[in-house]
């Protein structure tokens, strides 16, 4: 028995006559009558009995109509699920992100995704390793990575999302915290640095050391921390200054004063698998573009 036949039975029960059901279904009355007789013959039971000028379901008919109504509703729901999935409105989207991403514009975009795609299972995973994020996208653990330094791999597509200055997060009582304007790069030699361990975030560590070399100073490491919150807590405790993307201002750590570093910037990228056909990934990019950012640049590899 196919869905079409179940629809015929439900229509006859709801309309109370074959003629009315035939009009609703855009069939001729003889055609629908024949379909009903064939079905009753295959089942070996009468599904309707005449009552006055109309038809009323028999006990067998009531049972079939009840079950057919549920089956048809489930079939409609399945078709709707397929339609929504094709439009990127349902399914699962897994995003991995750096802490500086969630403190910046990613948080706003995720809030919009949650509101607009309420039926999507949105999975979020923070990571402190650029290499791990890129590897996770390539092996399918993640659909999208929001990271500063994606891997160079021909299978990985990337696009620049936004740029922001690097900022020195200084102990609030330190003299450098009270000077006006951006801090010169030479300031990196005037205070110990609170920094990521290189084994935790190799490229972030190297980026900071490269700034020191550019300034012609030898970095002094005052302490190490494995999260932005720990780094800022160590700064507040007086161990030195942390160099982080400016968006970490959002953490508003008591006892810490941010001061931008002159002539520096860091870039946040979006990375995904080249040729990924997922409608949800396409939907994610669409939300980014609607978020009011400047036109995004894409590079493959």
Can you lay out the helices and strands and say which pair or pack?
Elements: H1 3-15, H2 18-25, H3 29-43, E1 48-51, E2 54-57, H4 59-86, E3 91-97, H5 99-103, H6 106-116, E4 120-126, H7 130-138, E5 144-147, E6 156-164, E7 166-171, E8 193-195, H8 202-215, E9 221-224, H9 228-236, E10 241-245, E11 256-260, E12 266-273, H10 279-290, E13 297-300
Parallel strand pairs: 3-4, 3-5, 8-9, 8-10
Antiparallel strand pairs: 1-2, 5-12, 6-12, 6-13, 7-10, 7-11
Helix pairs in contact: 1-2, 1-4, 2-3
Short description:
The protein is α/β, with parallel strands linked by helices and 301 residues long.
How would you explain this protein's 3D organization?
By secondary structure, this protein is an alpha/beta fold. It is 41% helix and 23% strand. Strand 1 and strand 2 form a beta hairpin. The longest helix is centred in the N-terminal third of the chain and has 28 residues, at 59-86. The radius of gyration is 32 Å and the shape is rod-shaped. The chain starts with a helix and ends with a strand. Residues 292-301 have low confidence and may be disordered.
Descriptive key words:
six-stranded mixed sheet, 13 strands, 41% helix, D-Maltodextrin-Binding Protein, domain 2, 301 residues, five-stranded mixed sheet, disordered C terminus, 3 domains, 10 helices, rod-shaped, Arc Repressor Mutant, subunit A, alpha/beta
């Amino acid at each position: 028995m196919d869905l079409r036949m179940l629809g015929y039975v439900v229509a006859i029960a709801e309309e109370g006559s074959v003629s009315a059901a035939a009009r609703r279904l855009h069939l001729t009355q003889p055609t629908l009558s024949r379909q009903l007789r064939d079905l009753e013959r295959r089942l070996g039971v009468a599904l309707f009995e005449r009552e006055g000028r109309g038809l009323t379901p028999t006990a067998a008919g009531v049972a079939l109509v009840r079950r057919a109504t549920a089956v048809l509703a489930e079939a409609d729901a399945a078709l709707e699920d397929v339609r929504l999935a094709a439009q990127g409105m349902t399914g699962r989207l897994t995003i991995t992100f750096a802490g500086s991403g969630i403190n910046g514009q990613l948080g706003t975009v995720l809030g919009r995704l949650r509101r607009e795609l309420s039926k999507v299972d949105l999975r979020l995973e923070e990571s402190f390793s650029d290499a791990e994020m890129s590897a996770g996208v390539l092996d399918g653990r993640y659909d999208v990575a929001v990271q500063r330094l994606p891997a160079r791999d021909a299978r990985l597509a990337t696009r620049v999302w936004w740029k922001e200055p690097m900022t020195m997060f200084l102990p609030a009582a330190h003299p450098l915290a009270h000077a006006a304007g951006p801090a010169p790069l030479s300031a990196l030699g005037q205070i110990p640095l609170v920094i990521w361990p290189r084994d935790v975030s190799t490229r972030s560590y190297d980026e900071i050391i490269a700034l020191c070399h550019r300034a012609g100073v030898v970095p002094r490491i005052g302490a190490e921390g494995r999260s932005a919150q720990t780094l800022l807590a160590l700064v507040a405790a007086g161990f030195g200054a942390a160099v982080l993307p400016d968006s970490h201002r959002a953490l508003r750590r008591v006892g810490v004063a941010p001061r931008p570093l002159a002539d520096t910037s860091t870039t946040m990228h979006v990375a995904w698998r080249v040729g990924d056909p997922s409608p949800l990934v396409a939907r994610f990019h669409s939300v980014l573009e609607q978020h009011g950012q400047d036109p995004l640049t894409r590079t493959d590899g």
